Give the backbone structure.
Amino acid sequence: MQLRKPQAADGPAITALIAACPPLDRNSRYCNLLQCAHFAGNCIVAEKAGRIVGWVSGYRPPSDPDAFFVWQVAVSAEGRGKQIARRMISALLARPEQRDTTHLITTITDDNEASWRLFRGLARDWRAPLERKAFFERETHFAGAHATEFLARIGPIDRQTIHEKRG
């Protein structure tokens, strides 16, 4: 399995992967294309036998420049249970583009146990605390149409620990 930066030509495969991974929100095809073209340093794909089986997108929030925000994590059915998501996130944080990152952040709904397991596992592996608090609330931010998104914040993280855990 190869972990690499996405390319614009990967856009359709990434869009299809996200669609096959409910409950992920489907971004527009154009959004996925822009992530591959403009934000490749903040995104990663896992490719096996010429097929994209994993995707992580993220960015550095201007309001929190020491953090890396994980936007989406998608792993195909054939790739689940193989720690692909952990490997992709660790590889992303090991890149030179993320050298100043001290915290990993994301938002997760309360019922998304797979994502909570992933981020609790990363915090444990990196020996870093994980904080959780309501961030985008159901009524206030989503007009009742979406569950509350909780901010999960891991850190401070040590790049050496991430490197050691990557092998």
